[in-house]
Amino acid sequence: MGQIEGLDSLLKEHPFFRDFQPDALALLAGCARNERFEADHVIFRQGEAADRFYILRHGDVAVEVGVPGRGRITLQTLHDGEILGWSWLVPPYKWGFDARARSLVRAVSLDAVCLRRKMEENHELGYRLLQRFVPVMAERLTAARLQMQDLYAPSRAPIL
């Protein structure tokens, strides 16, 4: 039980879970585990099962996509305190991008199947989580769209 109690405290301290009641944090901690990724480790790949989401405690993670003829590009870099991954919320539960550790990363991950089950059983918890994830989703999609616009923008002739 000590591990869950420790994870419960980590969740409580994170801004994403501010104002969550202790019983809700305990439910979430039951789905959580500590993770560590070395620099350059691929955390997940596009098309794989989106089976977790991550609360970044330390380190930087690049959200990447492969672009034909250009290789891998970084759409966004996430840092300490940010949330990584929301594809676990949307069927068919597949990652839409890749995620790669840019430095040593310490994170708390939450199991998606466990979370979806708890959200179904406790609609208030589900609603509160969705309230927190929708802005994350919107911000990530905006960042991806802006990066893609820049990537695929027609070349501009230099101004002489």
Summed up, the domain count is 1
Q: Estimate the mean pLDDT confidence.
A: 87
Q: Given the C-alpha coordinates, what overall shape results?
A: globular
CATH architecture: Sandwich
Percentage of residues in strands: 25-35%
* N- and C-termini, Cα separation: 68 Å
Helix-strand makeup class: alpha+beta
Give the number of helices. 4
**Corresponding CATH superfamily:** Jelly Rolls
CATH topology: Jelly Rolls
Strand order of the largest sheet: 1-8-3-6
CATH C-level = Mainly Beta
> Order of SSEs, N→C?
HHEEEEEEEEHH
Biggest sheet, in brief? 4 strands, antiparallel
- How many strands? 8
Q: Which stretches are poorly predicted, pLDDT < 50 over at least 5 residues?
A: none
Structure, described:
The protein is α+β, with helices and mostly antiparallel strands and 160 residues long. The protein has one domain (34-152): Jelly Rolls, CATH 2.60.120. The protein has helices at 2-13, 22-29, 112-121, 123-152; strands at residues 32-37, 42-44, 52-58, 61-67, 71-78, 83-84, 98-101, 105-111. The strands form two sheets. A four-stranded antiparallel sheet has the order 1-8-3-6. A four-stranded antiparallel sheet has the order 2-7-4-5, with helices on one face. Helix 1 packs across helix 2 (22-29) and helix 3 crosses helix 4 (123-152). The radius of gyration is 17 Å and the shape is globular. The model has no long low-confidence stretch (mean pLDDT 87).
